[in-house]
Design brief:
The protein has six helices and 14 strands. It is α+β, with helices and mostly antiparallel strands.
Length: about 300
């Protein structure tokens, strides 16, 4: 924006009208990398999620199960670790929000004014920034390794709901994922000697007019796995601004989805200490229920 004063540009940031790669940015110090796209929106974007938008479903000495709202990253990037507290709170991450909520609950339960002791959490897996749903954190390093092993050995269950254009037969998708498929995006390669194996099981839950609601079960948990697999089949997840189809064949999103239509709905794993099976499920958030109801109504007309 040549010729514009810093005051004007800062006002755009503060009024939530700046997006980087389609994601709201309110931080003037956000470091950019080559290839990123900066957009100026005509109307303010929704405010970033806060601690109040996070739900802690389960806590014990070994782990925490939480529900992440769409628009919140799971963990803070290494380049952001030196940020001040105020700067972090402007766009909190899930691990920080969950730790604060646990500390707040513990202080309130003590029945007296105590300094809130924020617990340390250990990452086990992540879900995409714009994906909502269930996620687990470990509370000890030993629990972290045990849960990671459950994922690696396919003993844990992770199921997602998503919405796609058109329809697909129930199937298992297998491919080798690499960091750059040729256009700077992650994707599949036909060279089986490189990349990481990615396996996704999909089945249709219901048709929604010219769209479909799917259930996707992860056998492996590669970055953006579900989004990549469905896009490469020519049925990109509604609301996905990044993966819009196979390499060289992007498709337009006509769904008018309010955000990425992907939700971590089921999480099942063993408690590391007792071996007890912990089974959690959650339905679509309110914003996505409205979206699904609209697609369903359109299909009936």
């Amino acid at each position: 924006m040549p010729g514009q004063s810093w005051r004007v540009v800062r006002n755009l940031l503060q009024s939530r009208r700046v997006a980087i790669n389609g994601v709201l940015c309110v931080d003037e110090g956000r470091a950019l990398t080559p290839g990123e796209t900066i957009g100026i929106c005509s109307v303010p974007l929704p405010p970033p999620p806060t601690d109040d938008d996070v739900v802690v479903r389960y806590v014990d000495r070994q782990l925490v199960i939480a529900e992440k709202p769409s628009g919140m990253t799971t963990l803070r990037r290494t380049s952001e670790m030196s940020w001040t507290g105020a700067r972090r709170r402007a766009q909190p991450t899930l691990d920080e929000s969950v730790a604060r909520l646990i500390a707040k609950h513990a202080a309130g339960k003590a029945g007296q004014r105590l300094r809130q002791r924020v617990p340390k959490l250990y990452a086990v897996h992540r879900i995409d920034r714009d994906t909502s749903g269930l996620l687990v954190f470990a509370r000890t390093e030993d629990a972290q390794q045990q849960i990671i092993s459950q994922f690696a050995e396919h003993k844990a269950v992770r199921r997602y709901f998503c919405v796609i254009p058109g329809s697909l037969r129930d199937q298992t998708i297998r491919s080798q994922l690499i960091r750059d498929r040729g256009d700077g995006l992650r994707g599949s390669t036909t060279d089986t000697t490189i990349g990481q194996e990615a396996v996704t099981h999909i089945r249709t839950l219901r048709p929604l007019g010219s769209f479909s609601e799917l259930e996707c079960t992860l056998e492996t948990g590669r970055t953006n796995q579900i989004r990549i697999h469905l896009a490469e089949l020519g049925h990109p997840v509604c609301g996905d601004i990044k993966y819009r189809g196979p390499l060289g064949s992007p498709t337009e999103d006509v769904s008018n989805a309010p955000r990425l239509a992907l939700h971590a709905a089921v999480l099942r794993l063993q408690q590391p200490e007792s071996g007890k099976v912990l089974d959690f499920s959650t339905s679509w958030p309110t914003d996505m229920h409205r979206f699904l109801n609209r697609l369903h109504a359109q299909g009936d007309t």
